[in-house]
Specification:
Elements (H helix, E strand, L loop, with lengths): L1 E6 L5 H10 L12 E4 L4 E6 L1 H10 L4 E5 H7 L3 E6 L5 E7 L14 E4 L2 H10 L5 E4 L6 H4 L5 E6 L3 H5 L3 E10 L1 E6 L8 H22 E9 L3 H7 L7 E4 L5 E9 L3 H10 L3 E7 L6
Parallel strand pairs: 1-3, 1-4, 7-8, 7-9
Antiparallel strand pairs: 2-3, 4-11, 5-11, 6-9, 6-10, 12-14, 12-15, 13-14
Helix pairs in contact: 3-4
GO molecular function, one term: glycosyltransferase activity
Family: Belongs to the ATP phosphoribosyltransferase family. Long subfamily.
Protein name: ATP phosphoribosyltransferase
């Protein structure tokens, strides 16, 4: 069986379980379950702390896992990202009291407090900055007020928590994170053929969910003389499906269109004479 690590709690857990369910995999019914078997898909799921998943995967005990890009980098584990999943997005930045630090170079000789020592240490080293890093398990915003550090590095979403603590972010983001699928570095090399086949099937299913969430299916009728203009608006992935209607001079068109552009496309189609314009959700697909 394919052995997969899944987040057991936190912001990654719910969306990961939802995506796996949409991809056709069984998921646990009780939050206390640490392991379930999906015999139909020949998959075994292990529910682990998100911070530990990269370590388990890098050990080779588990084939692949879902975790955050930030947690993967922070772990320093011998694992790599193989698919971005588009949820649990966050930005990691430096912050301090206004007017005290302006650029990354200003961190030389200073102390940085963070819960992500691996990420910060690597970022400072990669940029040639000589600064000390203090590890805190949480609430890093108070580190400056209490004199533990002069700068913090943390996940920034709206910036409200920073402002409430009298701090502001500076410089470019350290990294942008989201949920990702990971496997052991170069894990495909020399992998069991059956396991590798299941890994690729798993990735195709998740990619199908991502596409289904991004696109909608659009159907409409239009006059033959307006078909070229209509097709230009809805080119589809390869090309749209066009079928003649019973009424001569009319055709039915079907194509996948980006969900976020669907309303605008419907307006444009209507303006050129298309009618009976419908959109439907896509629940699964393979490209």
């Amino acid at each position: 069986m394919l052995r997969i690590a899944v987040p057991n709690k936190g912001s990654l857990s719910g969306p990961a379980a939802e995506m796996l369910h949409e991809a056709g995999y069984q998921q646990r019914r009780e939050s206390k379950e640490l392991r379930i078997v999906d015999p139909e898909n020949e998959v075994e799921f292990f529910y682990l702390r998100p911070r530990d998943i990269a370590i388990y995967v890098s050990s080779g005990r588990l084939d692949i896992g879902i975790t955050g890009r930030d947690l993967l980098v922070d772990s320093g584990a011998d694992a790599e990202e193989i698919l971005a999943l588009g949820f649990a997005r966050s930005t990691f930045r430096y912050a301090t009291k206004p007017g005290t630090v302006h650029t990354l170079a200003d961190l030389n000789g200073r102390t940085v407090a963070t819960s992500y020592e691996g990420i910060v240490g690597k970022h400072l080293k990669d940029n040639g900055i000589d600064a000390s890093v203090v590890h805190l398990d949480g609430a890093v915003e108070t580190a400056i007020e209490l004199g533990v550090a002069e700068v913090i590095a943390d996940v920034v979403e709206t910036g409200t928590s920073l402002r409430n603590a009298g701090l502001e972010a500076f410089g470019d983001p350290i990294m942008k994170s989201e949920a990702v699928v990971i496997r052991r570095t170069n894990g495909a090399e020399g992998a069991d053929e059956n396991v590798e086949s299941k890994v690729q099937q798993f990735l195709r299913r998740l990619q199908g969910v991502l596409v289904a969430r991004t696109y909608v299916m659009m159907d409409y009728d239009c006059r033959v003389e307006q078909l070229e203009k209509a097709v230009a608006l809805t080119p589809g992935l390869e090309s749209p499906t066009v079928s003649p209607l019973h009424n001569e001079g009319w055709v039915a068109v079907r194509a996948m269109v980006p969900a976020k552009e669907a309303q605008r496309i419907m307006d444009d189609l209507y303006d050129i004479g298309a009618r009976a314009i419908l959109t439907t959700a896509i629940h699964a697909c393979r490209l």
